[in-house]
Amino acid sequence: MAQIVLFHSAHGPRPAVQAAADRLRAAGHTVHTPDLFEGRTFDDTESAHAYQEEIGGADELLRRAVAVSAPLSEGGLVYAGFALGGAIAQNLALADEKARGLLLLHGTSDLREDAATSIPVQLHMADPDPYEPEDWLNAWYLRMRRAGAEVEVHRYQGAGHLFTDPELDDYDADAAEQAWAAALDFLADLDD
């Protein structure tokens, strides 16, 4: 079974993150859920972004994520995350030669031109997604494939941005169940 580090969204370590971790653990995986926000949670993106800037922005979040992940990475991690956490997970996975996979829910990050990886990647996105327009996702997919990754993209028409979080207006129960079923299959395949 996989050892997974699962990063929260810009809304912080909400109950949906723990519920997702519990779902993955029930399938036999070891899951770590680092809290990059020191326990703070947010109901709106404006407050979340203000807090991120207050603590030092993206660089500080990445530093915190590295500090948590580095001691765990010896055996090969699967990096995963929700939205902002997906962007962080992607950056860490592409920098970790031992990474076993990358599971992205609701978010991606830009890739350096010289990025290279052979890890399997699975992405789950709303269709459309206001934070990740079609042009961006197409370019991301092509760059990721050019980097050498095996990429699988799942789109959920009509779902909101963070459609897996039952406490947010974006929640879509059917899309969330489809996403988790595909994610569990993806993680099971990493063990083959």
Give a description of the structure.
The chain is an alpha/beta fold and 192 residues long. It has a single domain, classed as Rossmann fold, CATH 3.40.50. 42% of the residues lie in helices and 18% in strands. The protein contains 6 helices and 6 strands, in the order βαβααβαββαβα. It has a 6-stranded parallel beta sheet with strand order 2-1-3-4-5-6, with helices on both faces. Helix 2 packs across helix 3 and helix 3 crosses helix 4. The longest helix is centred in the last third of the chain and has 18 residues. The mean pLDDT is 95.
Secondary structure elements and their pairing?
Blueprint: E1 3-7, H1 15-26, E2 30-32, H2 45-55, H3 57-69, E3 78-82, H4 84-95, E4 101-105, E5 120-127, H5 134-147, E6 150-157, H6 173-190
Parallel strand pairs: 1-2, 1-3, 3-4, 4-5, 5-6
Helix pairs in contact: 2-3, 3-4
The CATH topology label is: Rossmann fold
Helix content estimate? 40-55%
> Average pLDDT value?
95
Shape: globular
User: What is the CATH C-level name?
Assistant: Alpha Beta
Structural class category: alpha/beta
Number of helices: 6
Tell me the strand order in the biggest sheet: 2-1-3-4-5-6
Full CATH superfamily name: Alpha/Beta hydrolase fold, catalytic domain
| Structure summary, number of beta strands | 6
Tally of discrete structural domains:
1
Proportion of residues in extended strands: 15-25%
Topology pattern, helix = H, strand = E: EHEHHEHEEHEH
Radius of gyration over all CA atoms, rounded: 15 Å
At CATH's second level, what is the architecture?
A: 3-Layer(aba) Sandwich
Low-confidence parts, pLDDT < 50 over ≥5 residues? none
End-to-end Cα distance, whole Å, is 10 Å
